[in-house]
């Protein structure tokens, strides 16, 4: 039976290529079990299993039958890492909020907006090249000057300036456009 949420099989002369509906039918069960063991949460495992297949569909790449499990596992591992990183960020934010006197604590709506912005910034930084991400964090979190960042990263001052322009431009686009 075909899922209404997945595209129908794409006719293909190469029988070694797995259609998405067959891929889902054949691998969803073990993938869900693998994710449940990794995460310890049935609901989150269900969400991430679905996200894995969404990524396969969005990738629009042919998936060879003999490589399907490896591809799905690779995608799932990346999603688990993202989930754990976001959970750690949320935990750190909530731990910080616990230290703020109640009179100064933001409203639940503001807390949710701030947490969403932190998650968006985390995804944005994850998409930057490593040195641009490091330069941005050293500047914004550690308060280092550009010459100090250049020395710490072992790059030229102009490289640090380019990294910061790239990071700040990405932030601007993400938050204002």
UniProtKB/TrEMBL annotation:
Residues 23-87 form the RNA polymerase sigma-70 region domain. Residues 119-171 form the RNA polymerase sigma factor 70 region 4 type domain. The keyword Transcription regulation applies. GO terms for molecular function: DNA binding; sigma factor activity. InterPro entries: RNA_pol_sigma-70-like (IPR039425), RNA_pol_sigma-70_dom (IPR014284), RNA_pol_sigma70_r2 (IPR007627), RNA_pol_sigma70_r4_t2 (IPR013249), RNA_pol_sigma_r2 (IPR013325), RNA_pol_sigma_r3/r4-like (IPR013324), WH-like_DNA-bd_sf (IPR036388). The keyword Transcription applies. Gene3D superfamilies: 1.10.1740.10, Winged helix-like DNA-binding domain superfamily/Winged helix DNA-binding domain (1.10.10.10). GO terms for biological process: DNA-templated transcription initiation. It holds the Pfam family Sigma70_r4_2. Keywords: Sigma factor, Transcription, Transcription regulation. Belongs to the sigma-70 factor family. ECF subfamily. NCBIfam families: PRK12528.1, sigma70-ECF. This is Sigma-70 family RNA polymerase sigma factor. It comes from Achromobacter marplatensis.
């Amino acid at each position: 039976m075909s899922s209404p949420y997945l595209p129908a099989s794409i006719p293909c002369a190469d029988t070694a290529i797995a259609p998405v509906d067959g891929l889902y039918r054949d691998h969803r069960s073990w993938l869900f079990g693998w994710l449940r063991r990794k995460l310890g949460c049935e609901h989150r495992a269900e969400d991430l299993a679905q996200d894995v297949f969404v990524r396969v569909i969005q990738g629009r790449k042919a998936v060879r039958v003999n490589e399907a499990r490896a591809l799905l596992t690779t995608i799932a591992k990346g999603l688990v890492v993202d989930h754990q990183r976001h959970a750690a960020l949320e935990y750190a934010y909530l731990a910080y909020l616990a230290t703020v006197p109640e009179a100064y604590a933001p409203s639940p709506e503001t807390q949710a907006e701030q947490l969403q912005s932190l998650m968006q910034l985390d995804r944005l930084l994850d998409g930057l090249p490593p040195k641009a991400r490091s330069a941005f964090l050293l500047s914004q979190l550690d308060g280092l000057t550009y010459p100090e960042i250049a020395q710490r990263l072992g790059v030229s001052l102009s490289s640090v300036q380019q990294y910061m322009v790239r990071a700040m431009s990405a932030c601007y686009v993400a938050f204002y456009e």
